[in-house]
Amino acid sequence: MSVPAIEAIGFQPSVIPTMSTDGSSVVGTGSAKSVSGSGFSDLLTDGLDRLEQVQDKADSLAVKAATGDLDDIHDYTIAATEASVTTQLTVAVRNRALEAFNEIMRMPIG
Fold first, then answer.
1. Residues 54/76, Cβ–Cβ less than 8 Å
2. CB 79 within 8 A of CB 51
3. Residue 4: pLDDT above 70?
4. What DSSP assignment string belongs to the chain?
5. pLDDT digits (tens, 9 = 90+) for 6-65
6. How far is it, in rounded angstroms, from Cα 110 to Cα 61?
7. Where are the chain's structural domains?
8. How confident is the model over 74-93, as pLDDT tens digits?
9. Cα dihedral value 45, 47, 52, 58, nearest 10
10. Could you give the CA distance from residue 96 to residue 93 in angstroms, rounded to a whole number?
């Protein structure tokens, strides 16, 4: 009986690019993806894809458990808990992003 590995849902950037003092160029060895501005959208897309994969795995194990084809019920329990925690994290990140957006929109111009 083997225990399935739990994958990390975060990311570890290797280098965080910084602006030079005059604001004209990026200093460091960041990838072109992080410099071009598409890195954030890629992270969001990747996170949502991972969420979908985790939920699909939990759903397929639920079907196996209901039909009696699942050997170890703890596999489903782990997958369902992982899907729940991942969903909660995604909702929390979304809520924080909306709060930040609303705060920016309330800032006075001028």
1. no
2. no
3. no
4. --PPPPPP-S---S---EE-TTSSSEES---HHHHHT-HHHHHHHHHHHHHHHHHHHHHHHHHHHHHT--S-HHHHHHHHHHHHHHHHHHHHHHHHHHHHHHHHHHSPP-
5. 665 554 444 444 444 454 444 444 444 444 556 888 988 998 999 999 999 999 999 999
6. 56
7. 40-106
8. 999 999 999 999 999 999 99
9. 170
10. 5
Q: Which residue has the tokens 């909702």?
A: 91
Can you give the pTM of this predicted structure? 0.60
What is the distance between the alpha carbons of residues 7 and 80, in angstroms, rounded to a whole number? 14
Beta strand 26-27 with 18-19 is antiparallel
